[in-house]
Design brief:
The complex is a heterodimer of chains A (483) and B (181). Chain A has 483 residues and is mainly α. Chain A has helices at residues 4-9, 14-19, 36-48, 53-79, 94-105, 107-118, 128-149, 175-208, 212-222, 229-262, 274-301, 309-339, 343-354, 358-370, 378-382, 384-411, 426-449, 455-462, 474-477. In chain B, helix 3 packs antiparallel against helix 4. Chain B has a 4-stranded antiparallel β-sheet with strand order 2-3-1-4. Classes of the chains: A mainly alpha (483), B alpha+beta (181). The interface between A and B is large, with 72 and 80 residues.
């Protein structure tokens, strides 16, 4: 009888000889067994090739759309916040809804690159760069709203603890001040993470550059990176650490956003479920947006081998899981409102579902709870057009969730005499519509100038021949190394 | 022993698969070289064992950044709340509880800067130029080839010996790299 240590030393237990199990092949992450060079050419080719006509057309449309935000904001600054649909008692309207909407979308990028990195989910490498870019641009769009919501935007710097002529410092007891720190930290750390992941790929673009401006542009950004293993050693450690510190960050940001609501005393806002519920919703909406973006990209650039059914399945399943969590939170809110026996809280929820904003509530429920349940079925996950349409519903549903939370609680609070009904004005609509243009402009520039797939990571984690101990791969048997 | 030539940066050998470069690294490590490196388009799993590298020191920078951030947040809020006390809801001027999100976010912010800065610092980057960039085939190491370079500053460097070692280890196109002007 061997000791435990001896038994665990032998690589193959005796039982395996007898039962002779079949080899279970892993589902490949990159289809069609491509070489390293194929991956480089595929991704760099997008950046190095001629600018396609569709890019110019989309860029013009996106720029036109973005000008709506500019128009809305110029009119607002020239006139005053009164041009928005805000009126007592609803002083948080679309601006806050849009802020929470965009910042929520911004959660998938860091989730994919940080949390899935810690969980060793290799499939993330095909989509993390795009998702991180999406995060940063979504945070840019989100930042516009609270910035202008302060009213006199030229005093927005008072949000930061900077000395000013009034000799007053910010109120650190306020969740809104915590939000300033959370969102600006999130934006900064996302940029750092995104940039660090991109350094080796920028090095490749520099090494392949044929024109002088490319060599200077990518050379500057690559910081002299030269793919040394000693460098990779520090780099991998830094990447892991950034993933480790971004994970609590990504969870804290939407938690603090939810504190903006939860730390108040309004019925419907003042609940302890808000932080986890907001975080789940943020991841849900973020994955919705990743699907919305990545599916067209993969057809336009022919990335079907890099972003294949494996990735789509995985993203759909996360959307399904987080969508169900959001559905659970909706149900739990109702349960606690009843169980807590607070008449105001109870009214707030009955009013949400059956009051003057019932239409918004039921749009939210059908888009966020019912729609993603379709992802249980493999047939639906394989239907790319349908997945894309569902992802759009997720985006719409999550906007309505923020609308329902923000507006219904404010419109009907404790005193019926102060109740109101909120409608946006054309300025609200212009400003929000335009942010999709701002987002698209930034995203199109990203597609044109930066590598949209983290190809050094794809090579390391998704290609089987990258494993130095995988001698089974034909690519690795070609070598004449002494082994 | 031939003294190291000032005009020579090192000797490079090219490899085409990860197992090849991995096992070649083991050989160079066992031959006792210290000033050498391998180059690959992506981090090869476990190559630091094959190269005999010690654990990376990046975490020290992360920790320093994190502690600095936490203390900075604490000092910031404490100073400002005593400098101009805002009396809200009868709460104390200062407590480590209510502004905790500030400390938390600043800890993460400076830890992230520490990590990125530490990574660049330990790698001696940014660097304007490196002799290896003058060697044309080196540029392929950011695409699909692998290279080992033994540098001439290594105390055990000897052109003939290194050349033989790299060839025995399976390296191709063993080439002397000029140190550059």
């Amino acid at each position: 009888m061997p000791t435990l240590a001896e038994a665990s030393d032998s690589p193959k237990p005796d039982i395996l000889e007898k039962v002779n199990p079949i080899d279970m092949p892993r589902r490949p992450l990159v289809l069609n067994d491509h070489s390293y060079n194929w991956v480089t050419e595929k991704v760099c080719g997008i950046v190095e090739g001629k600018t396609p006509t569709w890019w110019w057309i989309s860029f013009a449309i996106a720029g036109g759309m973005a000008s709506f935000t500019l128009m809305g904001l110029i009119y607002l600054v020239a006139t005053g916040v009164g041009v928005w649909g805000l009126a007592n008692p609803i002083n948080w309207g679309w601006a806050i809804v849009n802020f929470v909407f965009w910042i929520g979308i911004g959660h998938a990028g860091t989730l994919i690159s940080a949390v899935l990195c810690l969980l060793k989910q290799r499939w993330r490498t095909s989509i993390n760069r795009t998702a991180e870019a999406m995060t940063i641009f979504a945070v840019v769009c989100a930042g516009i709203f609270p910035l202008f919501h302060v009213g006199r935007v030229w005093f927005a710097w008072w949000l930061f603890p900077l000395p000013n002529s009034n000799w007053i410092w910010p109120n650190f007891r306020s969740p809104l001040e915590w939000d300033v720190f959370a969102v600006s930290t999130y934006g900064t750390v996302s940029v750092l993470f995104w940039y660090m992941g991109m350094v080796p790929d920028l090095g490749t673009l520099r090494d392949r550059a044929t024109s002088a401006w490319r060599r200077v542009f990518y050379g500057t950004l690559a910081m002299g990176w030269r793919n040394s293993s000693r460098h990779w050693h520090n780099y991998e450690m830094a990447y892991l650490l950034l993933a480790g510190i971004s994970t609590p960050l990504v969870l804290s940001v939407h938690t603090i956003v939810s504190f903006d609501f939860a730390a108040s005393i309004l019925p419907g806002w003042h609940t302890t479920i808000f932080p986890p519920y907001f975080v789940a919703g943020a991841i849900f909406s973020g994955f919705g947006m990743v699907l919305t973006l990545i599916l067209p990209l993969r057809s336009v650039f022919g990335l079907h081998d890099l972003v294949n059914q494996y990735h789509i399945d995985a993203m759909c399943k996360i959307t399904l899981a987080t969508g169900s969590m959001v559905g659970y939170a909706y149900a739990m809110e109702f349960f606690i409102a009843w169980y807590g026996a607070n008449p105001y809280e109870g009214f707030a929820f009955v009013n949400r579902a059956f009051g003057q904003y019932a239409w918004a509530y039921w749009i939210m429920v059908s888009c966020n709870v019912i729609c993603p349940q379709l992802f249980w079925f493999k047939r639906i996950r394989k239907n790319i057009a349908l997945v894309w349409i569902i992802s759009i519903f997720v985006n719409v549903g999550m906007w309505f969730e923020r609308f329902v939370i923000t507006v219904t609680s404010l419109a009907n609070d404790f005193l019926p005499s102060s109740w109101g009904y909120y409608s946006p004005t054309i300025v609200d609509i212009f400003t929000f519509f335009g942010t999709f243009g701002v987002f698209s402009v930034l995203f199109l520039l990203f597609l044109r100038f930066l590598p949209l797939i983290a190809f050094s990571e794809v090579k390391a984690l998704s290609l089987p021949q990258a494993d130095p101990h995988n001698h089974d791969h034909p690519e690795n048997r070609k070598g004449k190394g002494a082994h | 022993m031939a003294k190291s030539d000032k005009n020579v940066f090192g000797i490079a050998a090219t490899f085409h698969t990860t197992p090849d470069v991995y096992h070649a690294c083991e050989k160079v490590r066992d031959a006792g070289f210290t000033r050498w490196d391998s180059y690959s388009p992506f981090p090869i799993h476990g190559i630091h064992h094959a190269m005999g590298l010690k654990r990376s020191r990046v975490p020290l920078f992360t920790l320093t950044g994190g502690i600095t951030g936490f203390i900075a947040g604490l000092v910031l809020v404490a100073y400002m709340n005593f400098d101009y006390p805002l009396i809200v809801g009868g709460k104390p001027y200062f407590s480590p509880i209510f502004p905790f999100p500030i400390f938390y976010e600043l800890t993460i912010l400076l830890a992230a800067f520490g990590t990125l800065g530490g990574m660049f610092l330990l790698n001696r980057l940014p660097r304007h130029h490196h002799p290896l960039f003058d060697y044309e085939p080196f540029l392929k190491t950011s695409d699909d080839t692998f290279m080992i370079v033994v540098e001439s500053t290594d105390p055990a460097f000897d052109e003939g010996k290194v050349r033989r070692l790299l060839e025995e280890a399976g390296g191709e196109d063993v080439t002397v790299i000029k140190a550059g002007s």
